[in-house]
Amino acid sequence: MTEVGLFIVLFAALFLGWAMGRKNPAKKSKREKKSVPPDYFRGLNHLLNDQHSEAIDAFVDSLEVNSDTFDIHLTLGNLFRKKGEIQKAINVHQNLLARPEITQREMRMVQLELASDFMSAGLLDRASRLLLNMATASKKSEFHSKILTLLVDLYEFEQSWDKAIQISSELIKESPTKKEIKRLAHFHCEMAEIFSKKELWKEAFQHYKQALGVDSSCVRASVGAANVLSSQRRYRDAIKELKQVAEQDPEFISIIIPQLKDCYQRVWGGSGFIKFLQEQNQKKPSAALILALAQHYMEDDKEYAEMFLVEQLRSHPTLKGFRELINLQMKDSRGQNQQHLEVLYELIDQLAQVKPQFQCRQCGFSGYQLHWQCPSCKNWGVVKPIHGLEGE
Cβ distance 142 to 154 under 8 Å? Predict the structure, then answer.
């Protein structure tokens, strides 16, 4: 059990002792001791013996449900759920609901926790029915936003993107937080990808545009819209979408360079592409920009390409850049010098390949693939290319 969980148990035990002492202050201490339920002392005994689960069970048994103990029951039920003892959590919360003395507000609080229990247990149908009934009955209550949030979580888990979009849109009208806005945009992108796989380009493009309407900074939507336009050979429009990424988040420029280069070559040649690279490199240098420019300069002047690469590495050193510089040097070297450069190239190449390329800015998860939803913390749009010596 975590320190927080243990604190909750201790707090529950102390609160119970205080409440019972407060209940009959005029009575003698001998009588007070007799009024304390045996389960209370059993719980303390389990707690002292580090038997935390047994201690919680005993405290739950010793607590009568009333206005003084309602919050403790609710907290203990939540603790059971966090410990993975879902059935115990359900029992505690259902026991609270069965009490006729709880208020309407308390009933809504218990129903929310019970819905979370059902979701944790994988009982999604029961959670959905409970939440939908609550959403209908509590449209103007203080809990409505929380109810909608849980519904969105449920539909996201089920990957029911159309339902998630519907409820999320309603939620944003009430609580337009940055997190929910970003999440809704990605729901539209998920729907767009489904249509793209079916080659329903019009529907896919509409969802990408809806995503940008919700969140104008959604890089995924711009890249997806460009993919749709490229599939229809609308390369000029695709270029506009891709260049928009530079304004949305320059950290993502590295992922659009190959596609942007291809689109430019199909319509205008390479001049516009190189101008774009030069402008962006002046604003925010990255390994991808520097290498793309060096490769272009190599076509006309190898010496200038090397000078450019060295100059860029002085101000923006990266493993990828050093690897490319060694590669250029190897082409003109001979004999032992070439062998030494080959060994150095292999070492840096191996080092660069084992380093993750993307990292979540929320929880620190890192990997070699770009995930629009972090596999670890489940937040949307928080995984980005790594920058610095080992990245871009």
Answer: no
pLDDT in tens, 84-100: 888 888 888 888 888 77
d(CA 250, CA 182): 18
The answer for residues whose C-beta is within 8 angstroms of residue 71's C-beta and 6 or more apart is none
CB-CB contact of 92 with 78 (8 Å): no
User: What would the pLDDT profile of 169-221 be if each residue is shown by its tens digit?
Assistant: 999 998 899 999 999 999 999 999 999 999 999 999 999 999 999 999 999 99
Which one has a higher pLDDT value, 388 or 269? 388
Place of tokens 């505690």: 92
Count the Cβ atoms, other than its own, within 10 Å of residue 373: 17
Element (H, E) at 359: strand 358-360
Dist. CA 347–CA 304, nearest whole Å: 26
CA 176, 178, 180, 185 dihedral sign is positive
Find the length of the chain: 392
108 within 8 A of 143, measured Cβ to Cβ: yes
